[in-house]
Specification:
Layout (H helix, E strand, L loop, with lengths): L6 H9 L6 H12 L6 E2 L10 E3 L4 E6 L18 H24 L3 E6 L8 H13 L10 E5 L13 E2 L12 E2 L1
Parallel strand pairs: 3-4, 4-5
Antiparallel strand pairs: 1-2, 2-3, 6-7
């Protein structure tokens, strides 16, 4: 059994938004600016309820916060207290992400993962341009093989991963995930 959290921790956790986060709003605004409106938000008919979804193109976009989804590029520290709880929480988040991505890929969806850090500073413009290029070049109503792509430049590793398929959605830091090109 996991340790109980304090009342203060519970309130902080409840204040964290699951929808309409600042990075998500930035992505949606940039997609509209690029002329790519017509998306669905948290579409319930798609596994995992992607943050942004283009059902006709079968493109699902997840805007992942680096802390909550344990970005493999940022190497953020874990909380120091209640470590068992946090380790289990982060593991559940990553398992859920992998499961949802697998379901989408199996159904022929192109899954785009945008990490929060790729939307900051001088990386924003390049990330959004890459995202718009991928979405805009995916035709409507034409079946395509499902795949997971990470979009944007990363803190480590330089250039973004356009065309790099994430072999294991669980992530590279566990020793199994490898970016292949």
């Amino acid at each position: 059994m996991l340790p109980m959290t304090t009342e203060a921790t519970r309130h902080v956790m409840q204040a964290n938004k699951g929808k309409d986060t600042k990075p998500e709003l930035k992505v949606r605004a940039a997609l509209r600016e690029a002329g790519l409106s017509g998306y669905r938000l948290h579409w319930k008919k798609a596994p995992g309820h992607p943050d942004v979804c283009y059902p006709g193109r079968k493109v699902a976009i997840f805007v992942n916060g680096c802390f909550w989804h344990r970005c493999p590029y940022c190497d953020l520290p874990r909380p120091k207290s209640n470590v068992e709880y946090w380790d289990a929480k982060f593991a559940r988040n990553r398992e859920r992400d992998a499961r949802e991505q697998e379901l989408l890929v199996a159904d022929g969806w192109k899954v785009l993962v945008v990490w929060e850090h790729a939307l900051k500073g001088d990386r924003f413009e390049a990330t959004v341009e890459e995202l718009a290029d991928i979405v805009g070049s995916t035709p409507r109503g034409v079946p395509h093989p499902g795949e997971v792509l990470e979009v944007g430049e990363h803190a480590r590793g330089g250039e973004g991963s356009r065309g790099d398929v994430v072999a294991d959605a669980a992530g590279p830091e566990d020793g199994d995930g490898v970016l292949v090109g």
